[in-house]
Amino acid sequence: MDIGTFIAQFISGLSVAMLLFLVASGLTLIFGVVNVLNFAHGSFYLLGTYFTYQLMQMFNNFWVGLLVGVIGAGIVGMVIEVLFLRRIYGRDQEGAFQLLMTYAFILIIDDVVKFIWGPEYKTIPKPSSLMGSLNLGTTIVPTYNIFIIVVGLLVVLFAWYFLTKTDKGKMVRASSLDRNMLGLLGTNVPLIMTLVFGVATAMGGLAGILAAPLRTVTPGAGVEVIIDSMIVVVIGGFGNFWGALLGALIIGEVLSFGILWMPELATVLTFIVMIIVLIVKPEGLLSKKMVGRK
Amino acid sequence: MKKLKDYLPWVCYFVFFLGILIVNPGTHYIHLVARVIILSLYAVAFNLLYGTTGLVSFGHALFYGIGAYITGMLVKATGPEFFLLFIVIGAAGAALVSVFIGLLTLRLTGIYFTMLTLAFAQLAWGLTFKLYHFTGGDDGIQAIAKPEMLTGGVTKYYLFSFVVVTICMYILWRIRRSPFGSVLNCIRQNPQRITFLGLNVYKNQLKAFVISAFFAGVAGGLYAGLDGSIHPDMLHWPTSGNAILMATIGGMGTFFGPVVGSGILTGLETIVGKYTEYWSFSIGVVVLIVVLLFPRGVLGIKHLAGNKNKEEKETEVVCNS
What we know:
Chain A is mainly α. Chain A contains eleven helices and two strands.
C-alpha cells in the first residue's frame, strides 16, 4: 500500500472514529454519572438526524438544522430521564430493567420516527461551504471529513476543559465517584444527572447529524450505531471518558483498514477486538478497577 | 392441597395448548400457537439463567440459532428421516459451544458478562453472513423438509412440537425444583453464601449456562422445522433481546412466566401487525408498563401490593437472624 492510500484511509478512519466518539462518550458519561447503560442512545442519534432533516425541509439551512437537531435530541433525552428512567434507579436487578426500558425506547422512538417521516431513505446534503476537498500533497481528502474531525477534537477539548478545570465539571466527576456523599454535601444530584443525560443525548444527536450527509438516513440507523458504540465503550472501560476516545480511535481505524485488507471479515473484526479486550482486560483498556471474579 | 396448587400452572398449560386443538381456530392460529410454544421453550430455557441464576445473558440467540442451523443443515445434507435426532444433535452442538463461551464469559460479572455474551452472538451472526457456502449467508436455508409423518397440515407439526416442548419443560421444571435448582436460586440471591457452603459458584453457573443453551438449541431446531426456513436474523441481537423481554413480561421469578411472555410478545407481533406495521411500538409500550408498574411480570402481579412472596420472606428471615 502506498503512503497516499494509507493517509487517505487513516483520515477516513479518524472521521469514523470521531463520530463514534461523539456517541460513545455520551454513552459512557451516562454510565459513569447516571449509572445507566443507555441502550437507546442510538435513537437519539436518529432523532437528531430527523430533526435536522425536518428543519432543512423548512429552511434549507444545514446550520439551523444542526442547532435545532442537537437541542431537540437533548430535550427529548432529558424528558425521558425525568419521566421514566428516574423511576427505576436503585431497584433490585437494576441493570436488567435499565436494559429493558431503554430497549423499549428503541422500539418506541424508531417506530415514531418511521410513523412521522416514513420508512424510505432520506438524504441530507453537505452544506455548500464544505463541499470541496483538500489536497494534502500525496492524497486528496474531502473537506467534510476534516470538518468532522475538527468538531470531534473541539468536543474533546471542551470536555477536557469542563471536566477538569471547572467547578461544575468537578461535581460531575464527583457524582460518578460517590453520588450519596455529593448529595449530603448539598449538591442537587438529580439535577446533575438530568443535565448530564441531556448533554450526552445531545452529543448523540450531533453525531447523527454530522454523519447524515455521509450515510443514508433511515429509521434503522440508530440501531446500527449503538452496537459499535457499545463496543467502543467496553474497549475503553465503562464510564471512562478518555477510554471512549481511545476505543473510538481503535474501532474507527479497525473499520477503516479492515475494509481495505479483509473486506470479508470487516464487520466481525470489531467484535473480535471487543472479545479480546474483555478476556484480557475486562475492565477496559483505560480503567483501573478490577471487576472480574475474585 | 398444596400439591394441587403447585400443579395448577401445568393444568392451565395443558388445557390451553391442547384446548386450542379442540377449538381449532384455523391453520393460521395453530401456526401462531406453534410459534408461541416453541418460543416458550426458548424463553423458559433462558429464564433458568436469567430469573433463577441471575445472569443477564444478551447472547442467547447464538444457541437458539446454532440449534436451528445444525438441524437445518443436517436435513439439507441427508434428508428429513431422522428429524428428531437432528434436533438433539443441534441442541448438543449448542451445548458444546456454550461450554467454551461459558468458560470465558462467566469469569466476568454484571454488565461485562452481558456485553461479552452479546459480542460472541454478534460474532457468530457476522460469520453466518460471511460463510456463504456453508450457511447460505443472507438467504439463510430455505425449504427444510420435514419427515413424512409431520408433513401436511400444521396441526401435526404443532402436536410434535407440543410433545417435545412439554418433555423439555418438564425436565427444566424438575431441574428448577431440584437441589441444584436451589443452588442456582441461591447464587442469584447471595453468591458469597454459596461459597461459604463449600459450593463452587462458577461451576454451577457453567452447568446452568450449558443446560440453558441445550434447551434453547432444541427450540431453535423445532423452529427450523416449523417454517422450513431459517435466516441469520435468528442469531442477531434482537432475538436475544426477545428472550429477556418474554421472561420479564411474563415474570422472571416464576417458571411459567416466560410462557405467558412468549404468548404476549408473539400475539402482539401478529395481531397488531395485522392492522398496522407499527407493532414494535406496541411492544415497547407494553415493556415500559411492565418495567414501571409490574416489575415481577404478569404472573407476578399477585405479589404487587407489598406482599412479599414466600421465597423473599424466607430470605429476609435468614438475613436478619
